Amino acid sequence: MLKVVKPELEDLWFRESMMADIETMSYNDAWGGTIPFPKEDWEEWYTLWVRNSGQERYYRYLKDDANKVFVGEISYHFDKLRNIYICDVIIKAEFRKQGFGTQGIQLLCEAAKANGVKVLYDDIAADNPSTHLFLKNGFSIEFQNDEILMVKTVL
Is the pTM of this model over 0.85? Predict the structure, then answer.
């Protein structure tokens, strides 16, 4: 069973480790793969995404309650250019294929709905296998080309 956890600043070591993990970030290969997240950036990022998140941003860790370990993260933010909420679910590679992705999507949708979000989107690389995960959890294809697949769900 997964638990949604609001991370503390010092917990950002987990995000740093996920962003640096080649296998976890393989879905991002088309856009550069791993993403540096050095400790000197944590405070500013944390203030924006966690401390002052409001309705336009939401960020939480997913914790496996049975094993007491973080397994991934869920988030959404309002994209002002496109006038839509974009979501993100990342499960650390070593914890994939255990149902955490499905639980994460469900928990994210519940949180977004509770926060007044009516529609969530995600733009996924066309070759990303997580497309199936979103489609089996109530998202539908809004747009598709050779590079991306835009999925959408009404909450």
Answer: yes
Contact by Cβ (8 Å): 19, 36:
yes
Q: Please, are residues 49 and 59 in contact by the beta-carbon 8 Å criterion? A: yes
pLDDT tens, the chain, 155 aa long: 899 999 999 999 999 999 999 998 887 766 778 899 999 999 999 999 999 887 899 999 999 999 999 999 999 999 999 999 999 999 999 999 999 999 999 999 999 999 999 999 999 988 888 889 999 999 999 999 998 999 999 99
| pLDDT tens-digit readout, 29-49 | 667 788 999 999 999 999 999
Classified as helix, coil or strand, 151 is: strand
Contacts of 92 (CB under 8 A, 6+ apart): 17, 18, 21, 24, 70, 71, 72
Q: What number of CA atoms fall less than 13 Å from residue 112's CA on the CB side?
A: 27
Please name the residue ranges forming H helices in the chain.
12-20, 42-46, 100-114, 130-136
CA dist 143 and 124 (Å) reads 10
What structural domains does the chain harbor? 2-154 (3.40.630.30)
Dist CA 125 CA 100 (whole Å): 20
